[in-house]
UniProtKB/TrEMBL annotation:
Name of the protein this chain belongs to: Glycogen synthase
Species of the source: Sphingomonas morindae
Residues annotated to bind ADP-alpha-D-glucose: K22
Residue stretches making up the Starch synthase catalytic domain: 10-240
Annotated family: Belongs to the glycosyltransferase 1 family. Bacterial/plant glycogen synthase subfamily.
Gene3D superfamilies: Glycogen Phosphorylase B
One Pfam family named in its UniProt record: Glyco_transf_5
Length: 488
């Protein structure tokens, strides 16, 4: 794989990987982790499905092994792209399709998703088994339900390689009818409560939570939340048991601070930093012009970069939008999701184009400009495993206003009186995620924005916050070595 053998070979298994293929934060984390781990003596190779975009990006690729995978042929191809060491599962019958990694162009899940991602997990187990002599991982790191059968395959095939499962979002569990087990090379004995069975169905994530050597989530607070009946989404008992055994750890994500760096971001009109913030005014002017707003209006600009879903609490923002506008605020939104929310925000923009700008979809350049030019970034999520957008906001000086949950609570220091007096506040938090609490937090944002010295201190604190992978990579490296039995 790489020219020099690293101290600890690890296979990362993910259904998406930035910048090759992305639908959400999973891709960002899976794409950033290999570089973050390299400084800790970890050789991380990423196994990813052979989507057309992935195969098209490969450089110096070569076929390493041909597998009979769930009764059909597949090829493992080694290659490099964007600094990533890759193993690509080339199986055109599973992955050579239009649409997203999980759904067709109309948003309908592919009917064979169980088979598509079981194949990915089984390929990981075969690699651990030694199908590629050039690369023998000492640990399998599986991400989310799409890779979560890998620990189960290791168990049922008797492969003595430890596994780590990272839960990026417990809400997505990979649940399929029980009869889809047939053809997935899982034994009949697996369909029990102690195996892959989940309320009578086949549960990919449940299987991973049961058989992984260790489980991580993407923030400490989220690890506590999901190990409970209230936050466990049907898996709280299993997770509570793993937590009690010391087998569940919350490790906060970081962001790629090379990509998200306002001091050298080619997508911004002028560079700026925590120490030299003057260039941020140019980004704010550019955002106002792009949104079609009056540049002379001094009111705060609120930004949203998000999926438009109930989870993200954006129905509450839609309800409170008239009050936000009446107070002199403006809104710039970038995202897509539930049709009702898309329609609601579109209607708001049509009614008040001078104060509301909405773009449905995702655009990388606009996301960077929005983070750099907005005064406040709104993340009112009802639950949030980690969240990356508020970390980008911190780095770019868009003061985050967030719900007090999961990784949002772990990354933003609320501007309460004590934090303001100590000059450590980096944003605003609110709880519970209900209309009155959110409205009160918006009122606090307006009041602080009007107090320019206080606002400048919060913004400067935010931009100095450490949102890199430095501490988290060290925590992962220590966990990897403990699981693999390799001295650190």
């Amino acid at each position: 794989m790489s020219g020099e053998t690293a101290h600890l070979p690890v296979l990362s298994v993910a259904s998406e990987l930035y910048p090759l293929i992305k639908t959400g934060g999973l891709a960002d984390v899976a794409g950033a982790l290999p570089a973050a781990m390299a400084g800790h003596g970890v050789e991380m190779v990423s196994l990813v499905p052979g989507y057309p975009a992935v195969l098209g990006a490969l450089a110096e690729s070569r076929a390493l092994a041909t597998l009979d995978l769930l009764g059909d042929p597949a090829t493992l191809i080694a290659g490099h792209a964007h600094g990533l060491d890759l193993l690509v599962l080339d199986a055109p019958h599973l992955y050579d399709r239009p649409g997203s990694p999980y759904a067709d162009g109309e948003g309908r899940d592919w009917p064979d998703n169980a088979r598509r991602f079981a194949a990915l997990a089984l390929a990981a187990a075969r690699i651990a088994e030694g199908v590629i002599p050039q690369f023998r991982p000492r640990l399998i790191h599986a991400h989310d339900w799409q890779a979560a059968l890998a620990p189960a395959y290791l168990h049922y095939r008797g492969i003595a390689v430890p596994s780590l499962l990272t839960v990026h979002n417990l809400a997505f569990q990979g649940r399929f009818p029980a009869d889809q087990r047939h053809g997935l090379e899982l034994p009949e004995a697996a369909m029990t409560i102690h195996g892959v069975e989940y309320y009578g169905d086949l549960g990919f994530l449940k299987a991973g939570l049961r058989f992984a050597s260790h489980i991580t989530t993407v923030s400490p607070s989220y690890a506590e939340e999901i190990a409970s009946e209230a936050g466990g989404m049907g898996l709280g008992g299993l997770l509570a048991g793993r937590a009690a055994a010391g087998e569940l750890t919350g490790i906060l994500n970081g962001i790629d601070t090379a990509i998200w760096d306002p001091a050298q971001d080619p997508l911004l009109p002028r560079p700026f930093s925590a120490h030299q913030r003057e260039g941020r005014a140019a980004a704010r002017r550019a955002l106002l012009a792009d949104a079609g707003f009056d540049p002379a209006d001094a009111g705060p600009v609120f930004g949203v970069v998000s999926r438009l879903t109930w989870q993200k609490g954006l129905d509450l923002l839609l309800e409170l939008l008239p009050d936000l506008l009446a107070r002199g605020g403006r809104l710039v939104l970038l995202g897509s999701g539930e049709p009702g929310l898309e329609q609601g925000f579109r209607a708001a923009a049509e009614a008040r184009p001078d104060r509301v700008s909405v773009r449905i979809g995702y655009d990388e350049a606009r996301a960077h400009l929005l983070q750099a030019g907005a005064d406040v970034l709104l993340v009112p999520s009802r639950f949030e495993p980690c969240g990356l957008t508020q970390m980008c906001a911190l780095r770019y000086g868009a003061v985050p206003l967030v719900a007090r949950t999961g990784g949002l609570a772990d990354t933003v220091i609320d501007a309460n009186p004590a934090a303001l007096a100590a000059e450590v506040a980096t944003g605003l938090q609110f709880a519970p995620v209900e209309r009155p609490a959110f409205a009160a937090a918006l009122a606090r944002a307006f009041a602080l924005f009007a107090d320019r010295p206080a606002w400048d201190r919060i913004q400067a604190n935010a931009m100095r916050a450490d949102v890199s992978w430095t501490r988290s990579a060290a925590a992962y490296a220590a966990l990897y070595r403990r699981l693999a039995g390799t001295p650190g």
